[in-house]
Each structure stands twice: as C-alpha cells, then as structure tokens.
Specification:
Layout lengths: L1 H24 L8 H10 L3 E8 L3 H14 L3 E8 L1 H9 L6 E3 L3 H9 L8 E6 L1 E6 L19 E4 L4 H13 L7 E3 L2 H9 L5 E5 H7 L3 E4 L9 E7 L6 H12 L1 H9 L6
Parallel strand pairs: 1-2, 1-3, 6-7, 6-8
Antiparallel strand pairs: 3-10, 4-10, 5-8, 5-9
Helix pairs in contact: 1-2, 1-3, 4-5, 9-10
Length: 269
C-alpha cells in the first residue's frame, strides 16, 4: 500500500510540475480551461473532501484516500460507505457530500436528473456478482442453479440496491426465482451473514469475495455476465470544495486509481 501512496504522490506532483512549466513557457490559456484549472488545483489543494461511496468500494477508496492525502499534505478525505441507493437519498436530502461514487448508473442518474451534480459523472469501473458461501459450504452450493433449491438459505441485496438489482436481472435472464431469507441494504451486510454462518449463500460482488479473504468461499457463475454493473463518480453540485472533489475524481479515474481498482478485481468501465 505504501508503494501505491508513493506512486500516487509522484503522479500528482509530476502533473503539477508539468503544468507549472507549461505556464511559464507560454501565454496562459483562458481562466476556465481544463489545463489552467488543474494546474491551479495541483498547487493549492487544502481542506476536507467528503466522499460518499458504494459499500463495495470500501477497500479501494480507503487506499486511494490515503494516497490522496499523502500526495497533498493539508488535505483530508472523509469517507462514508453505504448502499448506493441510501447514499443517493441522503445526498438528495442535503447531506454534505462533495463526491458520489455509485455501484450503478441508476442511482447516479437520480441525482443527475434532479440537477444535483456539478457536470456529468464519469464511469470508472465495472463489477459482476459472485456467490459467497461459508468456508465449509454446508449446503454444498456449486452453481447458481443450486440457490433456489429447498433448504438453501440465500441472502441477497434489496432490489433498490445495485447488487440486488443485478441479482434480479440474473433471475429474469435465467428464468430463476430465488426465495431469499433476507434482503440487505448493502453487499457488506450480505457478506456478513454468510461469513457468520447465518446464510448458506449470498450474492455479492467478485471484489467483495476477494476482499473477504478466507472468511468466505467464492463460487463464480457464468450467468453473472447477464448483469454487469458500471460504477460512475461525480462531483455533488452543493459541494463547498469542488477543487478537491475534482482532484479526487482525477485520482480515481486516472492510472493509479485504475491500478488499485484492477488489483481489487474490478473491471474496466
């Protein structure tokens, strides 16, 4: 993780240096040009940026937040993780977020359609479902077709949550009807019930299974390709520190962010 911080700091510092050299070499561009704006931000970032992000981004965004703070002394990244639908609702009700990263385009569109974003969102990753089971796999689950079998206790995300919507898509595409024992508000809650043994299986993301390590066992299934979730990120219109928000988004969508996400199992947008 320290290498990630150093790489992020080096990339951002190099960008600031290049922008400064370019400014000295020639006539400055318009005040609202992207190059001029980024150079100014790189030289004078300070303060706190509050990031609302989907629960499935907890590990990667925690790492990127530390890298951002290391690259910009004097800045602080405050992270709030939850189900995307809950976060979108909180922001629409005035929660003080600067950045929103959703696990699907639908919840981001809710904010965009309500004119609550500053500019358009940017897609930065994709994710697919995987079956998580306890290490002992007491129900002997080996495929998606095993989930609706009698006696198999399955946990999924609620339909309004991206992972729940993805599960519904797979059900419809395969003509399968699941009868979950509970519907949770985030993938982390589903994973918690599986790892504790309260459920025989749960539908979470590939990245969640990878992050869980030896707490659960992951079972890939080909039907998951029917529901690929795209992750967008955007600046909240009411943000009081848009320079920091945009800089954090640049880190997430840039080469360092893509590497951290890919290492965690996320796909390219």
């Amino acid at each position: 993780m320290r290498n990630a911080f150093r790489k992020a700091a080096a990339l951002l510092a190099a960008g600031a240096l290049a922008a400064g050299i370019a400014g000295c070499a020639g006539k400055p561009g318009p005040a609202n040009s992207p190059a001029d704006g980024n150079a100014s931000v790189a030289r004078a970032l300070s303060g706190t940026v509050t990031v609302y992000a989907a629960a499935s981004l907890k590990e990667t965004f925690t790492e990127l937040a530390s890298a951002f703070e290391a690259a910009h002394p004097g800045t602080k990244v405050m992270l709030n993780f939850a189900g995307s639908s809950d976060l979108a609702t909180q922001i629409s009700q005035g929660a003080p977020a600067d950045v929103f990263a959703s696990a699907d385009t639908r919840n981001m569109a809710r904010l965009s359609d309500a004119s609550l974003l500053d500019g358009g969102p940017r897609n930065f990753a994709t994710n697919v479902l995987e079956i998580a089971v306890p290490r002992a796999n007491p129900a002997s689950v080996s495929s998606f077709a095993d989930l609706p079998k009698p006696g198999v206790k399955v946990v999924v995300c609620a339909p309004q949550v991206p992972c729940g919507a993805a599960a519904e898509k797979v059900e419809k595409a395969t003509g399968t009807t699941l009868k979950p024992v509970s519907e949770e508000s985030s993938v982390t809650d589903v994973l918690g019930k599986v790892s504790s043994g309260e459920a025989d299986a749960g539908l979470v993301y590939v990245t969640d299974v990878k992050t869980a390590g030896d707490k659960v066992k992951g079972i890939p299934f080909t039907e998951a390709a029917q529901a690929v979730n795209t992750y967008p990120i955007g600046t909240v219109g009411s943000s009081k520190n848009k320079d920091l928000a945009r800089a954090f988004i640049e880190l997430v969508t840039g080469s360092e962010g893509r590497k951290v996400l890919a290492d965690a199992g996320f796909g390219a947008p």
